[in-house]
Amino acid sequence: MHYVLVHYDIPEADGEAWRLSVGGKVRTPLSLDLAALRTLPTITRRVTMECAGNGRARLSPRPVSQPWLVEAVGTADWTGVPLRSVLDAAGAATGAVEAVFTGADHGVERGVEQDYQRSLPLPADKDVLIAYAMNGTPLSPQHGYPLRLVVPGWYGMAHVKWLRDITLVDSPFTGFQQTVAYRYRQEPEEPGEPVTRMAPRALLVPPGFPDFMSRTRVVHPGSVRLEGRAWSGYGPIERVRFSPDGGHTWTDAEVTPPGEHPGAWQAWHTEWTATPGSHTLAVRASDSSGRTQPLEQPWNRGGFGNNLIQRVPVLCY
Amino acid sequence: MHYVLVHYDIPEADGEAWRLSVGGKVRTPLSLDLAALRTLPTITRRVTMECAGNGRARLSPRPVSQPWLVEAVGTADWTGVPLRSVLDAAGAATGAVEAVFTGADHGVERGVEQDYQRSLPLPADKDVLIAYAMNGTPLSPQHGYPLRLVVPGWYGMAHVKWLRDITLVDSPFTGFQQTVAYRYRQEPEEPGEPVTRMAPRALLVPPGFPDFMSRTRVVHPGSVRLEGRAWSGYGPIERVRFSPDGGHTWTDAEVTPPGEHPGAWQAWHTEWTATPGSHTLAVRASDSSGRTQPLEQPWNRGGFGNNLIQRVPVLCY
Asked: DSSP character for B245?
C-alpha cells in the first residue's frame, strides 16, 4: 500500500534487456545490465518516502495537482547498489558537479515534451541507492521496475523511477523538474527555492473505527492508546507533542529513537482518555535540526512541502 | 494495480486463527478454518470487477462519495472454493432464500454502526467463489485477506472482503448495504432498484503519451493502433464502436470473443489515422443482452452504475 505518484505513464520495461548507461563527465562510460549491476556490493536501507505534494488538498487556494490529504507517504526496505559504487566504477572526471538521472517515463508538462529527469549534487550521499528490490522482491512496475533511485531524506521527486541513464555534468542541471517544477514559489516569475528534503511531520494511526465518507473517527469512551509515526529529512525526530483539544494544550508523546534505520520514520505513542462528545486530536513533531511543524499552513504555488500539524476529528459515544 | 474500495478500515487478520462460520437456515452449522476450506475442491476464475461508483466524478451534481473517473475496474485470477460447495456441506434448510455475507470490516455509515454485510439470492450461481488467492498468491490485506467473496458479473459491493460469516435466511436481507446504500434512486425517500450487475462499458488503453495534470493524450501524426477492453455483467460484449470525432461518426472495432474466461473483460482494437490538431476519441460497447452504453449520462443519487461512453481528448502534433 506504499503511495505512488507517476508524472507520465508507467513504462513497459524488459528487465532482461534493460541497460543503465553512465556517461558525461566520467573517465569510463558504462552500460550496465542488471546482472552487471548486481556484481557490485548491495545494501538495504529502510526509507520513508513522501510526495512533495503531500497535504496539498488542505491548501487554499488549492494548487492544481494531485489532491493528497496526508496519505502520500510510505516506508519500505529498498535493496540495491550504492550510487557511489557505480560512480566510482565510471570515475568522475574533473569538474563534474552534479549527476543527472533520466527515467524511461515520457510525457508533456506545461507544453514541454520530456523524459523525467532530476539531478543530485556530487559527491553523492553514501546511502543513495540504485535500487532493484523493494521489501525483498523485484520492484513492481509502478515503483520503477527494474531500477529506481532511492534518496533517503528527500521528497519523492528525487527518487527517479525506471532509471535508464546517469550523466555527470559540470554545471548545475537546469531541466524542467529541477528549475520549473518543484520550486517553492509565491509568484510565478520568481526563481524560488528548490524542493529537496522532507520537512518534519507526525501522523496519527487513525484510532477507533471510521465514519464512511467523512474524515471523522469514532471511539467509545475510555482509555485509548494513540500511536503514530514521525519523520524528517533534516535529522531524527526528537519530540512529538499531542493535543486532545485541537492545539490549545499539548503534552509530550513517547518517541522511539531512530535506532538502526535512520532513513525511516519513528514510532511514537501516548494515551488519551476519550469522553463522550466531539474532539479534535492534534500531533506536532520537531526534529534535531530545530524544525517544528507549523500551526498555520504556509502556502506556495506548487503546494509543496506542506507539513501543517495533523488535526483528526473524533466522535466519542 | 487492481482498484481498491474500502468502506471502513482494512482489518488486521490472522489467517491461522481465521474461522468462516456458516449458519442460520442450515442443517449443519459449520466453522471452517482455512485448512478445512482448502480440503474442498478449488477452482480459478478470471473476473473483471468494477466499483458500482466508477464514473461518478463525471456526474453533475456529483454525489458525495469516491470521485472515480474510470479507474475503478480491474481483472484478476481468483482461486477458491465454490460457494455452492460450502453451502452443500452445510445443507440449506427448507425456506432458505438468501445467503448473508458478513465481513470483518466495521464502521459507521450515515449514523449506523455496522459490520459490512451483503446478501445474494439462493441458489448461488456456480461461479461464485470464496476466494483465498488472487493471481496465484494469498489475498493481500486490501483485497480481503484471508477470504473474500467473488461474484462474477456483479459490481464490487457484492464481493464481500474479510469474509467471516455466511448466514442463510428465510426472507430477503434488509441490511444497510442492501436497502439503504447501493440502490438506484432519484429521490431520497423512494425504495429504488438494487445495484447488482455491471452495465456494459468499453475503455480505451490511453494512446500516445500523457500531458501531466490534464486528461489529454498526446500523439504524433500517422497511424495509431487503438486497443482497449470491454465488459458487461449481463453477457458477452458483441460490439464495440469507435468514433474519431467525439461521437458524430462511428465505425466497428474488432472484438475478441469471450473464450475461456466468460467473467473477464474482452479485448478490442481498431486503427486510427491521427492528423495534427485536437480530437476527441470515443468508444461504445453493446452486449448480448441488448444493452448499450448511453450517449448522455443518466443520473442517480448514489452515482452508481454510470456507464457513459468514454471520450478521450487527444492532441496530435
From this structure: B
Q: In chain B, which stretches have pLDDT less than 70? A: none
Using an 8 Å Cβ cutoff, are B13 and B141 in contact? yes
List CB contacts of B231: < 8 A, sequence separation 6 or more.
Answer: B48, B50, B73, B198, B200, B201, B237, B264, B265, B266, B285
Helix then strand count (H, E) for chain B reads 2, 22
Q: Which of B9, B142, B212 sits opposite A7 (nearest CB)?
A: B212
pLDDT of residue B1: 86
* Nearest-by-Cβ selection for B212 from A1, A107, A212: A107
**Residues of chain A under the 50 pLDDT cut:** none
Locate the chain B residue with the closest alpha carbon to A216: B108
Residue A83: predicted pLDDT: 98
Closest Cα to residue A263, out of A146, A159, A123, A118?
Answer: A159
Measured in angstroms, the CA of A123 and the nearest CA of chain B are apart by: 32
Residues of B in contact with A109 (CB under 8 A): 211-213
Q: Which among A283, A200, A207, A273 is positioned nearest to A242, based on CA atoms?
A: A283
pLDDT tens-digit map of B206-262? 999 999 988 899 999 999 999 999 999 999 999 999 999 999 999 999 999 998 999
Distance CA A25, CA A95 (A): 8
**Could you give phi then psi for residue A22, rounded to 5 degrees?**
-125, 115
Residue A73: per-residue pLDDT: 98
Q: Compute chain A's Rg from CA coordinates.
A: 21
The answer for residues whose C-beta is within 8 angstroms of residue A308's C-beta and 6 or more apart is A55, A58, A293, A294, A295, A296, A297
Contact (CB, 8 A) for A268 and A251? no
Containing H/E element for A242? strand A237-243
Q: Which residues of chain A have a Cβ shorter than 8 Å from any chain B Cβ? A: 1, 7-9, 64-65, 106-109, 113, 141-142, 206, 209-213, 218
The answer to whether B223 touches B239, Cβ cutoff 8 Å, is no
C-alpha distances (whole Å) from B248 to each of A154, B216, B279 are 49, 20, 12
